[in-house]
Task: inverse folding
C-alpha cells in the first residue's frame, strides 16, 4: 500500500494555550485533513475535559498529552476516564513500570476503547547531562531503547520519543510500533526549551510516524502557512522512505 493510499495527516499541532478562546480559534484556522490536535497539561488544567468535547465537535483526532505517572490503580483509572472522553491517543510515563503499563492497556481493551496508548521515554527537553543528574546509568539512546522495549513488552501501541532515537526504535521493533516525536523545528529556528530537536525532514527519514509541533506553528505570524510548510516537508520525507 502506497503512502497516498494510506494517507492521513501525520502532523499533530500542540495547542499550548491556557485560554480556551485562543485554543479554539487556532484549531478553527486548520482542518482535520491538515492535522491532528494535541491537548497538553496547560490547556487541560485550564479548561478541563470540556475542551476535548469542543475539539471533537470540530472533527479532530485528539492526542491527550498528560503523561500519567502515579501508582498503578490511579494511572489505570485515569486512562479509562480519559478514553471515555473520546480521545484518539494518550500517554503514560514508561517509568511507571511494566505492571502499570500492562494493566492500563488491558483495561482500555476490556472497556472496548480503541484509544492508542503510548509510553513516554525521555523528554526532548533533557540532554545527557540532565539524565546523568537524574541518575540514569545509560546514555539517552540506550535508555530510550530500554524504555521502548518495556513499552513493547507491556503491549503498548508505541512511544513518545525524540526523532533522534526513532531510527533505532524502528530497526528493533515492528513497523506498527508507533513513534510520536516532539521537539520538531524548521532549520535555523529557535529551540526554546527543547534540547534534542530535529527538522521535519530528518524526523521522517529517521522513521517518525507522527510529529508534534507547537510553537513553530502556533506562535508564527501565519500559523496556517507554517503548518502547511511543515506538513509538506514531513510528507515529502515519508514518501522518500517508501522508495
Result:
Amino acid at each position: 500500500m502506497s503512502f497516498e493510499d494510506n494517507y492521513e495527516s501525520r502532523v499533530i499541532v500542540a495547542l499550548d494555550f491556557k485560554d480556551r478562546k485562543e485554543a479554539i480559534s487556532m484549531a478553527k484556522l486548520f482542518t482535520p485533513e491538515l492535522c491532528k490536535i494535541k491537548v497538553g497539561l496547560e490547556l487541560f488544567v485550564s479548561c478541563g475535559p470540556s475542551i476535548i468535547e469542543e475539539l471533537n465537535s470540530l472533527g479532530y483526532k485528539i492526542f491527550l498529552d498528560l503523561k500519567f505517572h502515579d501508582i498503578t490503580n490511579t494511572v489505570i483509572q485515569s486512562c479509562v476516564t480519559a478514553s471515555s472522553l473520546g480521545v484518539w491517543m494518550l500517554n503514560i510515563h514508561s517509568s511507571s513500570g511494566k505492571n502499570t503499563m500492562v494493566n492500563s492497556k488491558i483495561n482500555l481493551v476490556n472497556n472496548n476503547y480503541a484509544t492508542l496508548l503510548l509510553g513516554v521515554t525521555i523528554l526532548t527537553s533533557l540532554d545527557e547531562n540532565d539524565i546523568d543528574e537524574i541518575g540514569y546509568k545509560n546514555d539517552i539512546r540506550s535508555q530510550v531503547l530500554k524504555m521502548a522495549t518495556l513499552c513493547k513488552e507491556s503491549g503498548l501501541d508505541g512511544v513518545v520519543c525524540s526523532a533522534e532515537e526513532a531510527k533505532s526504535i524502528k530497526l528493533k521493533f515492528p513497523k506498527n510500533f508507533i513513534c510520536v516525536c516532539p521537539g520538531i523545528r524548521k532549520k535555523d529556528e529557535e529551540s526554546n526549551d527543547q534540547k534534542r530537536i530535529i527538522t521535519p525532514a530528518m524526523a521522517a527519514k529517521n522513521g517518525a510516524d507522527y510529529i508534534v509541533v507547537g510553537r513553530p506553528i502556533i506562535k508564527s505570524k501565519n500559523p496556517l502557512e507554517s503548518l502547511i510548510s511543515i506538513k509538506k516537508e514531513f510528507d515529502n520525507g515519508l514518501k522518500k522512505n517508501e522508495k
